[in-house]
From TrEMBL:
Protein name: PD-(D/E)XK nuclease family transposase
Organism for this UniProt entry: Anaerobutyricum hallii
Organism taxonomic ancestry: Bacteria, Bacillati, Bacillota, Clostridia, Lachnospirales
Amino acid sequence: MIRQTGLAEAIDIAGNRARYDECAKKLLSYKAIIAWILKSCTKEFSQYGVQYICDNCLKEEAEVSTYAVHQDELDKNDKLDGDKRVEGMNTESNSIQEHTIYYDIRLPAFLPKSNEIVRLILNLEIQLDDTPGYPIVKRGFYYCGRMVSEQYGTVFTNEHYEKLEKVYSIWICPDPAKKRKNGIFKYHTVEDIIYGESYTKEENYDLMEVVVLNLGDADKSSDLEILDLLNVLFSATITPEEKKQRLNDEFEIAMTVEFESEVQEMCNLSEALVELGIEQGKELGREERNISMAQMMIQEREPVEKKERYTGYALEKLKEISNGIGIPLMK
């Protein structure tokens, strides 16, 4: 039995509205997409494969439009696991905090390095207007500054500034001006030696980085995989079916989930239970109880949505088994 993955379903739902804020946040909330962005846009993750990043570096909670940018504004309480699809919410609060601005998606990422864990705080933002009346990079650094300052009391206390964690603010512009299409730009803090020799490590001043991705057209290759992936994902002209096909074929992002292995596992369990019953007791009643136990385990083993898909199949296998050994299947 086959079903679509959550990302494939989100693509269907978004349709040609993938660039709209709410749809874009839902599409960006999948680990597979975030992993591609991390590998392509951050030096810390560039040496790792996308699958490794998915499995080992995205493990904590992601916040989707829940965390206020300004210190004097309230946060929302809804948080969703970074390992699953997270539901998008309004960028602006609908409560009495009428002008509150929230980060689109904010999440921590963990990078194995020697025997330690380097933790980066990431902020992903969708910017539909790449000329909003102010430089996007300045807003990006403002967000970075907020993410750095709010580490006091959570990441470190007192004067332990050595524990400060690097932050990224990554901005995706789906529809930039033609002259700016298909570009990636990074802005970060560096050391400028006026006189003398450097005496501090790069990690002590490389604490903030803003990345701006200007997308292009899905039918034109950009020579960079991350731009091609996002161009397909946020295209307003190609169909959801074509998007899913290209993401599956060109970027190895699964669009379907195969359930046949789970069905077979259930049948194998049933057969094992029947065989165990025959070996341990020859009485007919005991053998009937073992088959009944197998039925109960099939019903309790999996969630409701999976039961509907393959419980009937597994019960048919049980019926075949019971007929083969001459024991009627209990109803």
